[in-house]
Amino acid sequence: MKLLLIMIAAGAAWGQATAQDLAQQEQAELSKAVTDAGNSPIDFTHALERHLAKYPDSPQRLAIEKALAKSAMDANDRPRLILYGEQVLKAEPKSDDFHLIDAVTRALLDAGDAESSKKALEYTMRYRQDVDSMRSRASEGHMTEGQWAAEIDRAMARVLMLQARAIGNLGNAEEAVKLAKSGWDLSPSAEGARETGYWYDKLNRLAPAIEYYADAFAMDDQATTPADRVSDRAHLAQLSTKLNGSEKGLGDQVLAAYDRTASMRKQMLADMRKKDPNAGRFDLLDFTLAPADGGEPVSLASLKGKTVVMDFWATWCVPCKIQHPMIEKIKAKYEKSGSVVFLSVDSDDDHSVVAPFLKEMHWGGRIFYDSGLGRFLTISSIPTVIVLDKDGKISSRMAGFVPERFEDMLTQRIEETHPN
């Protein structure tokens, strides 16, 4: 919220609106209103709404509506989220702001009436097209191929769940079950199981409803809150009593659901590891790095007992080009010792740019892809150099680059961990 305040107060441009388009009086009033709101989200919302009421044709209207939609999301203010969220989505029909589309769709569905559900269904079609478009893009955010594919599947499962609720609200529970179950089959989650159970219940098909609510209750899902589990438990009791006259046997069904969902998670992880051997890894030494030349991957566990220097760089990073020959110089000093290993790790999302870059820069030696290690180590800036001691623990993290001191600093850190 502070960022939004600063941007609007400074008259920063959003979309095609610019500070130059604003009359001095309007800009002064807007800046004062934002300043007076302080850190109060409620006062912030009211100040921006008053400004739009006074200046309905403000050049910064879209920027202000975006700020109001974001504030409504944070406050779980459904009426304002629908009002301003729809205005933003209409103004930017090409936007792939999944978070906003999802929030507006969910808010419309929660309203429950037919008109809102029809609107929500329209947004799910747009949402679906946006998710489909992700499949043709390179992985983003330092995700591996497996992580990116799983992210897309989760997003599509969410779309199918929202479509199920919209179509079900419009009277077609049979189609709602099919959509919800398709989402569950694509990427199982407690939310997906809950939605599927909900529509089976609406169809009075109690046995499968119990099964899916049991899956929701038993599934190890970080998105599930204690309140969700209480609700799932209540649904299970209600459905079991309705079907069997009591809760007898319900415990066995929950245990069966636990085994079923655990097996499902295990299979999903195995499938992911076919594309991404580092999927689900929680120990640094369990990671492997894939070389850019297509050779055998390197296991970090195999390097235990040695000092490991990992240089995270990217083709777009100017300091990396200066730092690289310095690292090569240090590497040459330890080459004969055999007790220090240097790993050059490329952090580009798009691997196709790496080979031309290496050829242009005349960089030799083996280059490894990030393979999800950067996300695990929370590498937030490039270049970053990580030094591991002989036990495979992080001994040093050098984020950024100080040219005049880099060689001495890295050498000192290596010596501090050097096993010999």
Question: What does this entry look like structurally?
Answer:
The structure is a single chain. With 420 residues, the chain is of the alpha/beta class. Among the domains are: 147-280, Tetratricopeptide repeat domain (Serine Threonine Protein Phosphatase 5, Tetratricopeptide repeat); 284-417, 3-Layer(aba) Sandwich (Glutaredoxin), CATH 3.40.30. 60% of the residues lie in helices and 8% in strands. It has helices at residues 2-9, 24-37, 41-54, 61-75, 78-91, 98-111, 114-134, 145-169, 173-186, 190-202, 206-218, 226-244, 250-275, 318-334, 354-361, 373-376, 406-417, and strands spanning 288-289, 298-299, 307-313, 340-346, 367-369, 384-388, 394-399. A five-stranded mixed sheet has the order 5-4-3-6-7, with helices on one face. The longest helix has 26 residues, at 250-275.
Question: Layout of helices and strands, plus pairs?
Answer:
Layout: H1 2-9, H2 24-37, H3 41-54, H4 61-75, H5 78-91, H6 98-111, H7 114-134, H8 145-169, H9 173-186, H10 190-202, H11 206-218, H12 226-244, H13 250-275, E1 288-289, E2 298-299, E3 307-313, H14 318-334, E4 340-346, H15 354-361, E5 367-369, H16 373-376, E6 384-388, E7 394-399, H17 406-417
Parallel strand pairs: 3-4, 4-5
Antiparallel strand pairs: 1-2, 3-6, 6-7
